[in-house]
Structures are given as structure tokens and as C-alpha cells.
Amino acid sequence: MAKVKFEDALKGLEEIVEKLEKGELSLDETLSEYENGIKLYKKCISLLDDAEKKIQILVKDEKGIFGTKDFIDNSNNKDDVL
Amino acid sequence: MNMNNVLPFLSDAVKNQKKILTVSGITSKIRNSLEQGFSHVWIIGEVSNLKKPSSGHLYMTLKDENSQIQAVVFKSVANWIKFDLKDGMEVLVFGSVTVYEPRGQYQIIIDTIEPKGFGALQQAFLKLKERLGKEGLFDPCHKKPIPLLPKKIAIVTSLTGAAIKDILNVINRRFARVEILIYPVRVQGEGAAQEIALAIEDLNTLADIDVMIVGRGGGSLEDLWAFNEEVVARSIYASKIPIVSAVGHEIDVTISDLVADKRALTPTEAAELVVPRYDQLKDALSKIKARLIQSLYNKIKTDRARLLRVEHSFPFKKPFDRIHRLQQVLDEKMQRLFMLCTHTMKLEKERLTGFANRLESISPLKVLKRGYSITTTLHDDIPLKSSKELPFGTKVKTRLCDGSFVSSVIEIAE
What we know:
The complex is a heterodimer. By secondary structure, chain A is of the alpha+beta class. Chain A has one domain. Helices cover 49% and strands 15% of the residues of chain A. Chain A has helices spanning 6-22, 27-49; strands at residues 54-60, 66-70. Chain B is of the alpha/beta class. Chain B folds into three domains: 20-116, CATH 2.40.50.140; 121-276, Succinyl-CoA synthetase domains (Rossmann fold); 368-408, no CATH class. Chain B is built from twelve helices and 13 strands. Chain B has helices at 3-15, 23-37, 75-78, 120-135, 162-173, 192-205, 230-238, 255-259, 267-274, 278-312, 314-361, 364-369; strands at residues 41-51, 58-63, 68-73, 90-100, 105-115, 152-157, 179-184, 211-216, 243-247, 262-264, 374-377, 395-400, 403-408. The radius of gyration of chain B is 64 Å and the shape is rod-shaped.
């Protein structure tokens, strides 16, 4: 499955909106572009929701092969609140 | 001067032979005296008459408005000069005064030389900046966009430095659901630049990194120096993965910052640039969705308005008028047609009644009313006209004006 980049989907969505806002398309075209827009919107949302937090350290062994180990995050200080 | 005054002086000197020195002797005495009195001095002056012979040593004259002094930079020191030494340059030097005995010339042996007002490192920075700039390493056209929604962010920095803490703070603050891969490197000291460059190359061999932060916390110019090294600049330039550089504080601009796809003022800002703002992105998406829906609604609204406008427009009204007129004509014709039809039908009906009356007047039933009857055979309904046709016992049917009866032939008369 081809990996759709968030910005590509967002850009596509923006282009559709701009095209629609000009109001030069026929009603049929408007409807089909609208459908495409909704599809891209859903794609963006799913990309946004599809992620999890993970912090790891890259380690390289003597043979130069990469591995990872978990990073212990000690920086949860109380005064970090924005 | 009168020779008579001089001569007794000379003879005194000849008498006291110990005080007479050779040229070398006096030169050596002067040298000792100068070396003791003027070792480790700082001198500021302008470079002139700079010579760079093949020996690798540098010779120059340092001067100001009123005086000048010869100066030498030996090869071992000259090799470490990181800026472009030129005539006319104001320099700050540190060294010791000595005498070049073959010429009886005093001079300063320079241990350290820096352009006045610039640290040597700064000068080196400018030199590399100019060179790489000319090569096009800083050109905006080479800068890759920073992805809006990276899934995996690599960080090239020291595990113990301030930068990693600052970056992780931002990630925690934003509740970011993002994968972070830290590539630990030394960020200062000998070999740090090579480590940073290798890290960038290594990360480029991994497939799934969306963006990289390369940097460190604040420090002196020397501390930040690794990020001004050419090897780091080249690896940043060669990277396929977009790089945000974040070195030191706002005031520190390094070569890495200039080559990187994006310069962050601090590691915190780098994280803020790279770590997605889910709330903002969602917000932006909702707004764009609203626009999408609104534009469709507007389209329908304007189309409907247009349709109404066209419908009420003169050329559209006129054809309807015509239709209405034609309809009226049609209605009239229909009415006439209908009347015509009823009239014709009435006539036809009358004609039909006439026929019926005539038909009735010649009907045999009328004769029957007068008392006549018709007798037929029972089965084939053939009227009987002769008594000879009847065998004895035949069943016959006799029709009267209001009915019929069946009888048998019991007697035949002639």
C-alpha cells in the first residue's frame, strides 16, 4: 500500500476547497470534487490518529548493525507545563 | 663634535679592556636582555610586508603609525592559523621578543595570532561560510520541507546534554504520539564533528525516519565548534532526510544552521517545529472541512438562485406565454370538436331509430300479432310451406307473436 503523506493529503484537500470556492465547476463536478475532498479529509484524520509515542536510542554493535533500546525518560518535571 | 673631547674617552676605554665588547657579544647581551624583559607579551598591530616562503614559516612586519617590529610565525604555529592572514590586517599577537643575531635585528616570535576584534575561530567560520556559500550549500532551493506529521523523528545529540531534555520536554508537553530515535553522539571535543557526520549518514540508511534534529545546547564558540566543521556541513547537505539544526542559543549561528533545511534557534524550538501539534492540525482540518461543506452549499444556493433568475427572465417568460396562448387555442378547438361530435352522434342516432322503425314495419312479428303463426321443424328451424313434407309423428315448433309451442303431427289433411 502506498504511503500517503499527510501534507500531500492536506494539500490535495486545500486545492479542492479552493477550486470549489471559486464556484466555477458544474454541479456534477462540484459533487464529485466534494466527495474527493471528504475522502482526503478522512485520510488526514486517520493519519493523525494513527501514531503512538515511543522513545528509543539507536545502538550500533561492533559489526555496525543497528539496534534500539528504550530510553528512560526522566524529564517529567512538574514545571514543564506550558 | 670636537675630536679633542672624544680622544680621552677612547683612551679610557682602551685602558679598561674588559668593557670592550665584540658585535656578537653586544648582540648576545641585547638578546638576553630583551628575552628576559619581553617574553610573553601581547602586541597589537597591522600586518605588512607579509612573506610566505616555502619553508612554511611566515615573516611580516607589524606596525602602527609611528613604529614597526619584525615578526616571525614558525611553521608549527602557522599550520594552525584558521584565518586568511593578509597584509593590512589588524592582528593581536602573543609571543616573545628576541634578536635575530645575523642582522642585529630584534623581532617577535609569534605563538598565537588572531585577527583583531575577531576570534580566530570566528574568522575560520567566516572563511568556511564564504567557501560553502559559493558552492551553494546554503541555497534555499536545496532546502527540503519539514514534514507536518512525522511519525518518526531522529535526534542526533548527546544523551547527557541539555538539548535532549529540552526536546523531550516539548514532546511530553504536547502529548505527542510520535516515535523518537536518539542517535547519541559527542557534541564537542576532538572527533565530535566526525561522529555527528557519521550519525547523519547512518540515519539516512534507515528507511523510516521522517525528519532529524541535529544539535546541542548552548556553550562557548569552541564548544559549538563541531557544528562549524565542514564534515558536518557536508553530511547535512547530503542528507535525504530533512534536517532541523538547533545549536546553542539564538545568537549562535553555525555552519550547520546555514546548511540545514531549517534552523531552529534552540533545541526547544527545534522540537516545537518538528513535533506535530495534533490539536492545531485537527483544528485546521475541521476548518477546511467546514469550508468544503460551505462551498458545496454555496454552489447549490447560487445554482438555485441562477435557475430562479433564468426562470423569471423575459426570454423564459415569453415562451410560456406562447404555450399558454396555444393551449387556449387548443382548448377552443377541443371544445368545437366535442360539440361537433355530439351533434354527429345525435344525427346518427336519429337515423338509426328511423331504420329501426322501418325494420319493425316489415318484421314477420307484426304479421304474427295479427294471429298468424309460423311452423318450423323442431331441429332445423326451416319454415314449413307444404303439408307433404311432413312424415307422421314429426315434432314441429310453432311460433306465435308472444311465444312458441312444440307439437307432433298426428294427422295430415290434403
